[in-house]
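Archive entry: two folds, one per protein. Generate the first.
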Amino acid sequence: MIEKIEIKNFRSLEQFQFNTTKPVILLEGPNGVGKTSVLEAIYFAATTKSHRTSTEKDMIEHDKPYAMVRLKTSDAQHEIILSEKGKRTLINKVEIKKISDYIGKLHLVMFAPEDLLLVKGSPSERRYFMDLEMMQVSKEYLRWLNHYKKILKQRNALLKKLKVDDDYTFLNILAEQLYEVGEKIYDARETFLAEINTYLKASNLKYKDFLVEIRYEPNLTKEAWLKYLKTKQKQDILYEQTTTGIHKDDFEVLFNGHPAKDYASQGTQRLITIEIKLALLEWIKEKTKKDVVLLLDDVLSELDSERQEQFLTSISNAHQTFISSAIPLNTKLDLQKVILSKEKQDGSK
């Protein structure tokens, strides 16, 4: 469990800290006071990534030289410092030089409005979801992914130089290497989604006639991909890029057997995404044998009071949970309130 949070110069939070005393922490306050930024900071400190932006300098408060987030848990202190020079990561005040050695020490799952892209976004959004979550629990998967990207970059660079009547020897060697590691990623993704589906069937958010499934949609079957790499070199040379492979994979979210992006309303898509995240949480917990922190940004805004209470009760005894809300919650749960306002940023309770 996270016991203390310290944030400095992160977004609009110049100085913010508080101790956590209960399993459920409610960040309450009007829009624009930094509730989402607190959750983003926690996520950033655990994963070294933001769920809101790929431009990291945006997370540093204007005119400040750096941003810092420090999380004290029951067994370690995790710290990340972001500046123009890059990121520094520390555990128990010892700098961790390799990001891959830092990621995965603190496990968490986050839901934010942006996660609706899992249902209605582009294939790249869903590939990113698969890769990020698997990387956090498997260093081997991270190595495979980095190796694949390296070979893919080499092959694409070669394709830009080759002509259709050139010798294909080196191109075929790279194709063999690409398939060898790509096959492992394919199998890992297929297994990951199958296991997530198992947890979806037992989700706490099950309502009547509410069935969510995820269907893996690889770019090609492994057999078809291998055949393409061996026989369709000319096409890739003409396009000057590797046109097939796991870097073009996707998955589809189904709601009661139909594509959720077409058959589910905005509110239902929100519930579907929450259900996927809760299934992911259980998957990480099973894989790591460790507790998982749950971050919920604006998760309750489209739920009626009955479903709010049902949802909060379902998660209250399972995991440490941080929830942001712009509306006061009428709940019987024993939770910790952290009130944010424009005048006060030090975490009054």
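Generate the second and append.
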Amino acid sequence: MLIKQLTRFISSQIVTNQQRCISSATASVTKIHRSVYARMYPTVVVLPDGSSINIRYHEPRKIIKLPLDLSTLTEAERKARIDARKPRKKIKIEEEVEDNFSSRKYLKYIKKKK
């Protein structure tokens, strides 16, 4: 019994001696660790067709994008989406174009510094 009281006393002393030093010079960025939020937050939901609606959501989020169901697309729409996801190909220049640019032609448009 005496040992339990001593351990509680010592542990309480350790906890009370530790103080957090919070001031305007310190900051902490972290996630809110809650499983249930007390209020509802305004959120934008983007539907698969591109339209958007405003809802009240139980977590603080700015936007929610719903996934697209590929089984409902036609073959042409599916092919267009797959082609848009492919990386763009680099354009190869096959022949050189003759360069006849003359900078002297544009000297009259340049203002001289005084």
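Annotation attached to the second fold: Residues 62 and 68 are 20 Å apart (CA to CA). The chain has a mean pLDDT of 79.
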